[in-house]
Amino acid sequence: MAAVSASTDQTDPPAPADLDLGTFSNRAPWLVEPERMPWRRDVDALRARVKREVPELTRPRRLPPGARMARVVRHLLVPVAVWSVTDRRRGGAASRAGLSRRLRIAAEQLGPTYIKLGQIISSGEGLFPVELVEEFKKCRDQVPPEPFTAVRRVVESDLAAPLESVFSSFDREPLAAASIAQVHAAVLRTGEEVVVKVQRPAVAQVVKRDLRVMAWLAPMLVGRIPVAALANPPALVELFADTISEELDFRLEAQNMLDVASMLAGLDQRTFVVPRPHPTLVTRRVLVMERLSGFAFDDVAGMRDAGLDTEAVVRTGMIAFLEGAMLAGVFHGDLHGGNLFVLPDNRTALLDYGITGRLDERRRIAFLRLLMGGIANDLRTQLEALVDLGALPEDTDFDALIRDLRLDQPVKDPTTMSPDELVGEIREVIKALLGYGARMPKELMLFIKNLVFLDGAIARLAPDLDLFAEIAHIARHFATRHAEQLTRDAGLDPRTVEVDLEGMKASMGLDSSVESITHRQLQERRAVIRSRFEERRAERRSRRLPGLPRRS
């Protein structure tokens, strides 16, 4: 939830001393001194307790969880039924838009847990239908806010003080309202401009009830639809429970802020800024932090008018994300346009740390080998990495998998395939993967979701970026700056690994003579593929509905 405003003060004060600890702003309202932050004392114990609670919350029960279950079914089935007799008949994008709108309204009526699911869907550009993504983007910061009386009660209860004794001003209208909390602009009695994140009352109890409903439903989806089976619905519920449970305690989020800032500083990634959490004004339900100002992430025209380099924003974002996951084992787990904005000095502010990816050493090195194997088009290295990530069983027969998935065969250009051929290819791949026990582990799901967001960021901020040149640039960056660690951790010297652009061209269905491709051109190819799926849907619809002319 971004707080965006104009900045007018151009004076450059001395660099704050805490920049050695993290990638904070150059204008410190206070200094980060971890040992003087009392809310940090029990963070490790709190995180461990949340981890212990998740298995109990997601344990499948023999009986459905009562009244809440009935309410969920009612709110989801009614809008689908209405859609089936109204917008569905219009077909195509209009049909999807109608259903998406009804589902978004249902999610808002069901409350914070389902709104959070909507926020996750809104980050899935390229994974979910465009209409669904666009509709659920409204769940990021257009959720109906809590009344100010409720906000005041939470703040005063958690800070154990009247609102006016802590803040000289506190905006009654929130800057943004999302599933778990809303944020308000305020000024402390000591004069610092801040953002105050306030948890919605009783949200913790509602979330726990909803998790029990999801846990009861999830096992029923296993094997029923291919995509859900591959994603492993119980694991999805576990991931969701893991992330949303941590979001219910803002002390954990504040520590995540410090950890990500420290990680970025350790990698010398000073192109990103993390707001400072307040030394003392952090509780389970209230988080006071430094207020930063800049351009909304989708304000491309404003950034360019101000002379900012939008291509650099994307380039450094991709590198910092990969470095964090693969070299430090820590990364922001919920990248989307509402959680970032660009400062006037071309740096990017990262907000909302409720979901933060944390990798143990084995999975960190697996991500590293996955990247190195992808750059070199080394199938065996990539498959070994997927085993270490938990995406494939330990006893996977790589030769058989490569043969069954035809990974050793020339890649077909999807833009030249018929709709039935496309669907058939996808079904065969999913069927083969399921046969080998493939699943989507939670760390990989977060990672892929962020990559999907970065893909969309390129489309908005740098559509004419040469993708092949950027891949080569990222490979050179890792080889130049991190060769020693990569060689030690992955057993591969990046200086000796050649970027296999031919393999990447083949995976995109491109001829080897193609020397470059921009994201705009890639999007055009994707549009062709989507149109072929639309043709197939229209064909199937015309067969079901008598009286409609068949497509030739």
Note down, in words, how this protein is organized.
- The structure is a single chain.
- The chain has 552 residues and is of the alpha+beta class.
- Helix content is 55%, strand content 9%.
- It contains 23 helices and 12 strands.
- It has helices at 43-57, 66-85, 92-110, 112-122, 130-136, 138-141, 148-159, 163-166, 203-221, 226-231, 233-247, 250-266, 300-305, 310-328, 361-376, 379-389, 398-404, 419-435, 442-461, 467-481, 483-490, 501-507, 519-544; strands at residues 167-170, 176-177, 181-188, 193-199, 272-273, 277-282, 286-290, 295-296, 330-332, 340-342, 348-350, 356-358.
- A hairpin with a 3-residue loop joins strand 6 (277-282) and strand 7.
- It is globular, with a radius of gyration of 24 Å.
- The termini are far apart.
Number of helices: 23
The helix content is: 40-55%
Q: Which structural category do the helix and sheet elements fall into?
A: alpha+beta
The major sheet is characterized as: 6 strands, antiparallel
Strand content: 5-15%
Residue stretches low in confidence (pLDDT < 50, at least 5 long) are 1-9, 225-230, 547-552
Radius of gyration: 24 Å
Overall pLDDT confidence: 83
Ends distance:
49 Å
User: How many strand units?
Assistant: 12
Mass-distribution shape: globular
Give a short synopsis of this structure.
The protein is an alpha+beta fold.
List strands and helices in order, with pairings.
Blueprint: H1 43-57, H2 66-85, H3 92-110, H4 112-122, H5 130-136, H6 138-141, H7 148-159, H8 163-166, E1 167-170, E2 176-177, E3 181-188, E4 193-199, H9 203-221, H10 226-231, H11 233-247, H12 250-266, E5 272-273, E6 277-282, E7 286-290, E8 295-296, H13 300-305, H14 310-328, E9 330-332, E10 340-342, E11 348-350, E12 356-358, H15 361-376, H16 379-389, H17 398-404, H18 419-435, H19 442-461, H20 467-481, H21 483-490, H22 501-507, H23 519-544
Parallel strand pairs: 5-11
Antiparallel strand pairs: 1-3, 2-3, 3-4, 4-7, 6-7, 8-10, 9-12, 10-11
